Amino acid sequence: MPRIVIKLSGSYINPVQPPSAIESFARAIKEVLSMGFQAGVVVGGGPTARSYISSARALGASQALCDHLGILSSRMNAFLLISSLGEAAYPVPPTSIEEALRAAASEKVVVMGGLQPGQSTNAVAAVLAELISAETLINVTTVDGVYSEDPKKVPTAKLYKKLSYSQFAEILSTRREEAGKYDLFDTVALNVVSRSKILVHIISGEPPENIIRVLRGEDIGTLISPT
Ligand code: UTP
């Protein structure tokens, strides 16, 4: 059975979203299962994480504590997706590698949030992909791929259709990593996908059916691969 990991930005799965928006991601995930894939899902912290982190930072909290609040937020968001997936999902987001392995053995959809400070949920998604031997990681984000510059600020920014791990590393190298502000991908995530040659698709979650389109082989978003 082919295996994939889907990382959903916390911008899509959070309590401010209408329940129907979260349901449409749950539907897309169920369709992935009906296509014959075994899937693991990692949910980000989104605005919940950012609001806790900015409040804690202003109160003098350390980076590690800010990251921890992001982790807790991502787990709460994971519970929202689990609620929508119902019986198809393992009922709790694993909080360690051992719990993730136990959950994966259930053959239900494992839905996780964060694990430890110093990384983003993309690193969790990369590690989960290694644990379940997934060949592909789909990073469902709020932009439709990797651009040469921020497309929201530079309208002429170019969308890359394909990048090697080293080209992607070069693009990410200038960006700072701190609680609540990890970019499209973080250093840990990149190291893990490149050591295990996991293919990464970066796509937009609008609409959620983009997840199905990419699995059907449609040329959307950016593909990051060994060469
Ligand atoms: P993310 O930044 O991964 O959430 O996690 P996100 O919502 O998916 O981000 P976008 O929308 O794609 O940009 C939220 C925060 O939780 C902490 C980090 O501070 C991160 O910014 N975190 C998450 C960790 O410290 N460790 C983890 O394993 C995961």
Describe this protein's structure.
- With 227 residues, this protein is an alpha/beta fold.
- The protein has one domain: Carbamate kinase.
- The chain is built from eight helices and nine strands.
- The strands form two sheets. It has a seven-stranded mixed β-sheet, with helices on both faces. Strands 5-6 form a two-stranded antiparallel sheet.
- Helix 1 links the parallel strand 1 and strand 2.
- Helix 1 crosses helix 3.
- The longest helix is centred in the N-terminal third of the chain and has 23 residues.
- The chain is globular, with a radius of gyration of 16 Å.
- The mean pLDDT is 96.
- The site of uridine 5'-triphosphate has 24 residues, from helix 2, helix 3 and helix 5.
